Please model this.
Amino acid sequence: MPSLVKTEHVGRIVWLGRVPDREAALRSEALKEVQATYAGIPGEDHGGLTRPSCARVVTQYPKGTEIRNVRQLSVVSSEELAAIAEEMGVESFDPGWIGASVVVEGIPDFTHVPPSSRLQTGRGTTLTIDMENRPCHLPAPVIDEDAPGHGKAFKAAAKDRRGVTAWVEREGPLAVGDEITLHVPSQRAWAP
Amino acid sequence: MPSLVKTEHVGRIVWLGRVPDREAALRSEALKEVQATYAGIPGEDHGGLTRPSCARVVTQYPKGTEIRNVRQLSVVSSEELAAIAEEMGVESFDPGWIGASVVVEGIPDFTHVPPSSRLQTGRGTTLTIDMENRPCHLPAPVIDEDAPGHGKAFKAAAKDRRGVTAWVEREGPLAVGDEITLHVPSQRAWAP
Model:
């Protein structure tokens, strides 16, 4: 019996985006369809087969160490973004504010799907989830541009709702409207 | 707070190996030190940045689909191999029988460490664990060569003890005797 099993959780891609140059702006621009490669989304500044390590993994690597890139994509859930918006007191949450790559709807407790889960479209394009993402303060000024005064509420409101980081396991198209099925490792919990 | 956290579980590499040609033999040959690259262990037939998908992921991919290779290395635990040997009624378990790449000792419940955990040596070389491996019947004839009549007991004895599959996140040396520290995703369980 294989370890990786298909679940009954079938969602849908409702938004796609790309950050062209994170030095210039953290905001991602909306797209309708992309051809995902092993390096991620073409033209996305977080793409690449490898990346220089950042503050998030400073426990593991001195900053700037070349490592494999498991943060090619930031995948978030439309239900969780709606909950963030509500808690922040804004009408709706623009995924571009946090530089999101993919927004899915229909997968419950999305931020906490098991590490090493896969998201597979009907056309076979597949993303491997590294693990939960954690919110930071960086989107605050981006949010303030569109919703003045609300940026500072983001980090707390996004706790447990910041989605996951992911990378491309099988290349292919990703498009708004694509069905996406969750596959999860079926192993029992670690009992050290 | 980062999602990936260092644990107090520090083990040691006690064996290293490589399968030069799996068509010729499933057995891995012992090595003392290797230079792990993003493609895995040089000269290992299971290496490569990508691989043609196999029966284990046929739920996800038609056989032979090009996908990223998360099975570059087979990592097992010396304590679990000893338990397999005891259940099989053999004196000791040769990691070469199952084509193992790395044997670690000192990490409890090794087969079930969380998916997306990292194993990092003191010199910084880092492996990302995809998930639990599952035993199959293929090693039976290899075992029978050295321990006649015992091969058929392997699959059942190795249940929950077959170790994990892994790939190289940071390149560098791996050597017998290296300390290896376990880092795990710190997120709560999924609650769909």
Observations:
- The mean pLDDT of chain B is 97.
- The longest helix of chain B spans residues 78-88.
